[in-house]
Specification:
Blueprint (H helix, E strand, L loop, with lengths): L1 H23 L7 E4 L1 H7 L1 H38 L5 H54 L4 E4 L13 H10 L1
Parallel strand pairs: 1-2
């Protein structure tokens, strides 16, 4: 429902700009284009380098978690092998140790996952902000009055699709 309201609002806004623009831009027709932001984001050079850096960090955290999992596994195997030989107090102590290490592993895994997700979202927001700024610069340099996200454009002329030109523009600098 929100999407429909957004599209309706944007269509009304565009119509308003077109009609209002006739008086404002009387010396030239209004120049409007659209861009596939997802395609630009995926083709942006900084997106690729950020993905590589993010994957390195993710792999490092995964290795750390795997190491803790192996330690817990060894502890559990050792306990299973020797549990019949242990005194009841020692047995309880080992079970508590395994339980505590298991809880710590779970907590560490969840924290690492959450931290990675926050970092990923931060990187995405930063990169999208940079792309939007570059699109604004493109609009100024190419004298566009309006550049829309292709997701809200139901139909448009082929020449109004600026995606490839914007990909080249954002990767220039």
């Amino acid at each position: 429902m929100k999407y429909i309201m957004k599209v309706g609002f944007l269509m009304c806004f565009c119509a308003l700009l077109v009609f209002a623009g006739k008086g404002v831009c009387a010396d030239r027709p209004m120049k409007i284009g659209y861009v596939n932001l997802e395609k630009v984001f995926n083709a942006y050079n900084k997106t690729q380098s950020s993905k590589v850096d993010f994957e390195k960090e993710k792999d490092a955290q995964q290795k750390e978690i795997s190491k803790k999992q192996e330690e817990l596994q060894k502890l559990q195997e050792e306990y299973e092998k020797n549990k019949d030989l242990l005194k009841p107090e020692e047995k309880t102590k080992k079970e508590e140790e395994i339980k505590n290490k298991s809880q710590v592993l779970y907590t560490d895994t969840m924290k690492a996952s959450q931290a990675l997700e926050e970092k990923r979202m931060g990187l995405i927001n930063t990169l999208v902000g940079e792309i939007k700024d570059k699109i604004k610069n493109f609009a100024r340099s190419e004298k566009y009055d309006l550049i829309l996200d292709a997701q809200i454009v139901l139909s448009g002329p082929e020449g109004a699709d600026l995606t490839n030109a914007i990909i080249e523009f954002v990767n220039k600098k």
